[in-house]
Amino acid sequence: MGILKNGGFIEVAQDGYITLTEAGKDVAERIYERHTVLTKWLMDLGVDEKTAAEDACKIEHVISEESFEAIKNRIIIDIISYVLISFVSISLVVSSIMIGIITYISVLERTKEIGILRAIGASKKDISRVFNAETMIVGLVAGGIGILATLGL
Known about the structure:
The longest helix has 45 residues, at 65-109. With 153 residues, this protein is mostly helical. β1 (10-12) and β2 (18-20) form a beta hairpin. The protein is rod-shaped. Helices cover 79% and strands 4% of the residues. Strands 1-2 form a two-stranded antiparallel sheet. The two termini are 62 Å apart.
């Protein structure tokens, strides 16, 4: 208690009540942040909760600010990566559905063309290949446009 009092981190009242000073509150918040971040990080690595909390208590007081910030930034980058991966997954599902709808509409609108192709001897497999090729071209072009837009070209 003497170290905390002499450091200006706590104040001891005449009746024995102990209160944190602003400097003490800042240090306590910083240590608590370190503890929670390190505990979560260790648990994400597969350490059980009790051991992670105990190890975080040991590490939080000796870890450098640079190392702690690197760990914290890595956690943030991982979270952002997971969010972006989920957006990409949803986008792939939606785009696949849209390509299917476009192909279906294309088949409905081109029944005369399909009839002519069948009349001149094209098999159902040949017609299917035509639509599959068109679908693949649409998908590749749309993907290419998406990549170019992402790169800012």
